[in-house]
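Q: Hi! First time doing this. I have a protein sequence and I read that you can turn it into a structure. Is that right? Here it is:
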Amino acid sequence: MTRFSTLFLIAVATTPFSCQEDSKKEVLSISIFDKIYELESPSLRIIGDVTHLYDDNTIDEESGKESYQPAKLSFEGISREAAKPLKIAKRGVTRKRICDFPPIKLKFSEDTLSNIGLSKFNTYKLVIHCTNILESLVSEEFLVYKLYNHFTDNSFRVKKLNMIYEDVSNGKEIRKIAFRTEEDEELAHRLNASLYEGPIKALDRQQYAQMVIFQYMISNTDWNLTNGHNMKWIQKADLPSTPPIPYDFDFCGLVNAPHASPRIHRCP
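A: Yes, that's right. Below is the predicted 3D structure, encoded as C-alpha cells:
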C-alpha cells in the first residue's frame, strides 16, 4: 500500500465527510474552473511561444513582475478556430529558479469569459512538471490538495489536467500532466466569504487545529501564520472567527521533492 493510500484511509476513518453544498445556498455563477472541474479527464492545449516564456528576460521593467505574453487555450480534439485567447506568465519562487518548466499563470480576458456565459474569475495557477525527471511530483502534490479537500471545504479545489504545450516558435509539442488550482477570490465566493488580509483578531481554533494536524501528517514546515506564508484567510459574514487555508505543498515530506528542505523557523 502506498503512503498516499495509507494516509487517505486514516483520513476517512477519523474525519467526518464535509457537506459540499447546502441545498438552500444560492446557486453561484459558473466559472471556467467549474467547467473544467466537471470533466473526467480533460486535455487542454496551450498554443503560444513556449520558448520565450521560459527565457530569463521576461521581467517587466516597470512592475518588476513576470510579464504576460499572448497565447490561446483549447480543448484537445476541438477545432483550433475555437481556441480562446489568454495570457500566460511564469510564476513561483523556488520552482521558477530551479525548474526547466516552472509553474505558470493563466489569465483570461473578463470580456471573453462573459461572452461565453462564464463568471469573472479569470486568473489561475497551473502547476506543471518542473523537469522530466520530477514529473511524478505533480501527481503527488495534487493528491495532497485532494486529501485536504476531504478534511474541510475551507480548502482550494484542484483539477488534474493532461496538458499539451504547442510552441509556435518551433512547431514542437510537449505533453505532460499538470493541475490547476482555484483562484483565491473564487474560493472565497464559493464559501460565501471574502478574502481577509488584516491582522487576525479571532482565529478559528477548530480549523487551525485541523490544519496543523494535517501539516504535521504530511510533514510540511513551509508555512507561517504570522507573515501568511503559503496561507490564505477568509472571513464569513456569519462567523466572527477566521479560518486559515493552506496551499503550496511541494516542500512537504509526503511529496519529498529533491529541492525541498525543512523550514523550522517558519513554523509558529
